[in-house]
Specification:
- The complex is a heterodimer of chains A (about 240) and B (about 400).
- Chain A has about 240 residues and is α/β, with parallel strands linked by helices.
- Chain A has eight helices and ten strands.
- Chain A has a single domain, classed as P-loop containing nucleotide triphosphate hydrolases (Rossmann fold, 3-Layer(aba) Sandwich).
- Helix content of chain A is about 35%, strand content about 25%.
- Chain A is globular, with a radius of gyration of 18 Å.
- Chain B has about 400 residues and is α+β, with helices and mostly antiparallel strands.
- Chain B folds into two domains: about 190 residues, no CATH class; about 180 residues, no CATH class.
- In chain B, strand 2 and strand 3 form a beta hairpin.
- Classes of the chains: A alpha/beta (about 240), B alpha+beta (about 400).
Chain lengths: ~240, ~400
């Protein structure tokens, strides 16, 4: 099935080593992975196995130590920092494990931020930001700053900020880590819709099996290596 | 490029508004530095200017002889005998290079005209006193040689005395009561203005004989407290001073092992004494100003360094959602420039207000010094920009994830 779609992401023997000398630690030990356009992949694995490290590399926030990363046919490791910025600006959305919202900045201004760098006009920007906040159920909190929001609400602002630009690929590092089951369900439905209706490719890290079940494929990472890669039965059954 | 700059402005202003306390403290640092330096230097300049004016008012060839040793604050005059009119005549007759000479006797007496009364410095001298001390008239005339010799009841009043006693009334021909005597005002001196030595225009000049006979109650022949001399043009003042000194030593019966108990000095010495004290003051002021500039700078530095962690994370977030390093740097540059300029302008405005308030109060001219304004402005702006911009530059070079992890 998935071979019908063109390949979007291709990793070959990707490694990441933190620090150097005696303190060096290899967090990724050679990842090989192919992801097609429009896929919804969950990445699972024990804590410290290298999931966030992998996501940061995929999201072009960090550079690999060795190996190659092709995104949509572009060799990412050859891009300079400006090109990486532009790739993030126009193609990628990222939901951080630790939210990373601007302090003392209202929810709507946080969500607007990526649009500002895309040069979108004020009125249109406000409209898109409101729309994104409404999608995550925060239409009544747009003036609140992060300090005035609960952990779950902050996470939803971070999600709104990542989807407001309608990116080609969405990277989500434990997007439901701070949410109750009900909100988790709503957010996962939203991600599924984005994947189904807009064809956004989604890579999502999670620890929970029932969250992973929303995805159509699960990659297990253990100790910096891909351990298993399974396509969900519902999908294979089709 | 235009869009990028517009965006940088928008984001920078938003970021300033969002962190008003930080912005305020930064601006405060600039304000303190700029206003202190500009105020100090402007006041220092004004004082120097005032002293210069005063010295040029004295003329270049004026000399004074006073009893006592030392000049200025260190003068010792207690118990030292005054001069006699014979001393004055001797100098006039025996010393070469003296163009004009006038004996001076001073007393502070009550002065009354109708209801108005005040204490005024009365100077008794001869008609030459006016030309030696470069006095000119705004109305009336000086007293003549015969009026001086015969001790007529006439007076020439200074500008301050005129306004204080007569207001807008014409003083010429009016009688004023000075001490026990009634004197007729025959002339008004043109104002010389305020000076560090006090109000020069608060004076009444009468003939010496008049003073001796009608005002002072003459106690002895030794009643000349000062001798005013103008030297001939081009005559060496050092020779003149030593000639006058040796004559007076002889007349005052000083032995060769005794020090002078009088003092001869010329405008150059007065100028040197005055300018050495203003130089000292300017140096002190500059030191205070430099410290303020430093304090302001350290204030800015502190604020910037304290917020580096937060700002580095901010940069990480901006880079992560697609800003380029250049865009982030423009934002920070605009922020730093805006704060520095606001602080600089407010600081200069404040200094201007201080100076225009203080200058008349301490009686100096208000001289606007554009150069020091610019220097203070640019120094503070530089501190603001360097400390606002340098951390931003470092952070924007990091990979976004490293900036985000900064602690
Ligand atoms: N900046 C860093 N410097 C040094 N070591 C790091 C750094 N970041 C991560 N590591 C190490 O790399 C390994 C993988 O970290 P990573 O954050 O990718 O784990 P994770 O799978 O996301 O874990 P979790 O499920 O807890 O989020 C860990 O052992 C961690 O200690
Ligand atoms: Mg993680």
């Amino acid at each position: 099935m998935k071979n019908l779609e063109p390949v979007l992401i291709e990793l070959k023997d990707l490694t990441k080593t933190y620090g150097n000398g005696d303190a060096a630690f290899q967090a990724l030990k050679g990842i090989d992975l192919k992801i097609a356009k429009g896929e919804f992949v969950s990445i699972m694995g024990p804590s410290g196995s290298g999931k966030s490290t992998l996501m940061n590399l995929l999201g072009c926030l960090d550079r690999p130590t060795s190996g190659s990363y092709l995104y949509d046919g572009i060799a990412v490791e050859n891009l300079d920092s400006v090109q990486l910025s532009l790739l993030r600006r126009f193609a990628l959305g990222f939901i951080f494990q630790g939210f990373n919202l601007l302090a003392r900045t209202s929810a709507i201004e946080n969500v607007e931020l990526p649009l500002l760098y895309r040069g979108i006009k004020r009125a249109k920007r406000k409209e898109m930001a409101r729309d994104a906040l409404a999608q995550v159920g925060l239409h009544d909190k747009e003036r609140n700053t992060p300090a005035e929001l609960s952990g779950g609400q902050q996470q939803r602002v971070a999600i709104a900020r990542a989807i407001v630009t309608n990116p080609s690929t969405l990277f989500a590092d434990e997007p439901t880590g701070n949410l109750d089951t009900e909100t988790t369900g709503e957010i996962m439905d939203l991600l599924t819709r984005l994947n189904d209706d807009r064809g956004i490719t989604i890579l999502m890290v999670t620890h929970e099996d029932d969250v992973a079940a929303y995805a159509k494929r699960t990659v297990r990472v253990i100790d910096g290596l891909v351990y298993t890669d399974s396509i969900h039965s519902e999908l294979t059954a089709l | 490029m235009i869009i990028m700059l517009g965006n940088a402005f928008f984001i920078a202003l938003r970021e300033i508004r969002r962190n008003l306390t930080r912005a305020f403290l930064t601006v405060l640092g600039v304000i303190i530095g700029v206003s202190a330096v500009v105020t100090m230097v402007t006041l220092g300049d004004g004082t120097t200017q005032a002293v210069k004016n005063q010295i040029s008012d004295l003329g270049s060839n004026l000399m004074m002889v006073r009893p006592g040793s030392g000049f200025g604050p260190r003068a010792r005059t207690a118990g030292v005998p005054n001069f006699t009119e014979a001393d004055v005549d001797a100098i006039r007759d025996q010393v070469a290079g003296v163009a004009a000479i006038a004996p001076v006797r001073k007393a502070s007496l009550s002065t009354i005209y109708l209801q108005a009364a005040r204490n005024t410095q009365i100077t008794g001298s001869t008609e030459d006193y006016f030309s030696i001390n470069k006095w000119t008239l705004s109305a009336g005339r000086f007293f003549s040689e015969s009026e001086s010799r015969t001790g007529q009841a006439v007076a020439v009043i200074g500008d301050t005395v005129k306004t204080e006693l007569f207001g807008s009334e014409d003083p010429l021909g009016q009688k004023i009561r000075v001490g026990q005597a009634s004197l007729q005002v025959i002339g008004v001196l043109k104002a010389k203005g305020q000076a560090g030595m006090g109000d020069q225009d608060d004076t009444i000049v009468v003939p010496l004989t008049t003073m001796q006979r009608r005002l002072g109650g003459r106690t002895s022949g030794r009643d000349i407290s000062e001798i005013s001399i103008s030297a001939e043009e081009g005559y060496d003042s050092d020779t003149l001073i030593s000639d006058i000194s040796s004559l007076l030593r002889q007349r005052r019966n000083l032995q060769s092992n005794q020090d002078d108990d009088f003092n001869v000095f010329d405008t150059r010495q007065i100028a040197e004494t005055l300018s050495s004290s203003t130089e000292l003051m300017t140096m002190l002021l500059s030191a205070v100003a430099a410290v303020s500039l430093l304090v302001g700078g350290i204030g800015i530095m502190n604020i910037m360094l304290v917020s580096v962690t937060e700002r580095t994370r901010e940069i990480g977030i901006r880079l992560a959602i697609g800003a380029t390093a250049k865009e982030v740097l423009w934002q920070f540059l605009v922020e730093a420039l805006t704060l520095s300029c606001v602080g600089g302008i407010v600081g200069i405005g404040l200094a201007f207000a201080f100076c225009s308030l203080l200058a008349p109060l301490i009686q100096i001219p208000f001289a606007f010094n554009a150069q020091i304004n610019l220097i203070a402005f640019f120094f503070s702006a530089l501190v603001g920009i360097v400390f606002g911009f340098a951390p931003a530059r470092r952070a924007s070079r990091l990979d976004p994830i490293d900036a985000l992890r900064h602690e």
